[in-house]
């Protein structure tokens, strides 16, 4: 027996005893003394593996593959080491290669290599399951539910789809398969890669652009030439963000297809310049607009009004319009549902109809700086009313009917508010009053006594309201669910007594909807010590004081007086 063979057998004996360091010395002596065989290299790699020296073990395994590429030993040993190190994909690949190299005539060696492959695959699957359990709970949702979540984030315009696509590969795959997510295209002409961006958007949306934002006219003309013929039939909403005439936007207007909505925003310099939607002769039938929103844009209404018979929403902001111009639009658009007019309405009643115009579908009305329009319209189905900077008393006197079925009433910085009779109808669910002089204690007392039983949201900001009136309101509308201590029990008794008094006055049992939102921003008379109790009864209480602002003013005033005294000295 040669010395090399004796050293090899001594190394094997030391390995079986667990003396891996001595075994490594014997195997190293055999490898250094002659051209190493695959048995000596694999044996030393096994020793390194048991000692936790995986890098050195992997080097010996790779050396076997280089010297003996037809032997399965190097591949199988590398697979075992990589499985321990956590490189499962590479380990499975090497184990499959080892199975191909194994001698089919030797069933034992083939069985050992198969065991190595099974161990690598089992470790790979266990790791994938571990990763799945450790992932965010959102990724555990089914594809359809995750797509619904992305719809709620992207479609209202609150989130850009690319921000979600950069989160992870899974989200990117879901978003790329949702063509309607990419249906909003902004043509602003910014960036050197603008054309590639447009091409990407058109590819993702499959050419079905529904929301088109035009901020740069040359970019729109380029897009129109490349994609307009196929994409324009799908456009549902167009936003134009420049004040020049839209004569070049003629292709977006429809005469035979479904009506679209148009938002046209200009600058303050464009406010007094009359504009036209189309510079072409009138067609045999009008062009189709479903919604029209104008900001700093003044149209030639005498020409445009007959063409707006399909209008359901009209918003006019920051531009002057006369009543004589607005009334013909309302006469033509009897199906209008939303009407917001912020400029000061002016005009005389000489050329206006004597009878009120019936708007049976109008559900939302917003007026600012003038309530003259209420003289000429009748709104029997009005749900939302928003008034700003007008005479509140005069507005409610002109309102027809006097008490429409309102669900939302908002008034801000209106004059003559103290004498106004608020239409506190039973259908009211939201009431917002801000920066006005009114008998708020009496209004809140009426709410506590049983008026507006469906009210769930109350906003009183920058008003003079006492804490006691609010406490009585909360006790009446938000009784404690389950009293747990003596204080809650006493409050419950007070609530029952208040309910009994209300029942004796009205003769009926009063059932309130619980108050869910209470906004008391910058109300000077609110006792901060009562806020924790209010928050224990009302789900959401908002109350911001002006303490910081006052303290800053006091600090600045003290600093200036100190400088003056220093200068005098």
UniProtKB/TrEMBL annotation:
<dbReference type="GO" id="GO:0051879">
    <property type="term" value="F:Hsp90 protein binding"/>
</dbReference>
<dbReference type="InterPro" id="IPR011990">
    <property type="entry name" value="TPR-like_helical_dom_sf"/>
</dbReference>
<keyword id="KW-0802">TPR repeat</keyword>
<dbReference type="InterPro" id="IPR001810">
    <property type="entry name" value="F-box_dom"/>
</dbReference>
<keyword id="KW-0677">Repeat</keyword>
<feature type="domain" description="F-box">
    <location>
        <begin position="135"/>
        <end position="185"/>
    </location>
</feature>
<dbReference type="InterPro" id="IPR019734">
    <property type="entry name" value="TPR_rpt"/>
</dbReference>
<feature type="compositionally biased region" description="Basic and acidic residues">
    <location>
        <begin position="490"/>
        <end position="505"/>
    </location>
</feature>
<feature type="region of interest" description="Disordered">
    <location>
        <begin position="476"/>
        <end position="505"/>
    </location>
</feature>
<dbReference type="InterPro" id="IPR032675">
    <property type="entry name" value="LRR_dom_sf"/>
</dbReference>
<protein>
    <recommendedName>
        <fullName>F-box domain-containing protein</fullName>
    </recommendedName>
</protein>
<dbReference type="InterPro" id="IPR036047">
    <property type="entry name" value="F-box-like_dom_sf"/>
</dbReference>
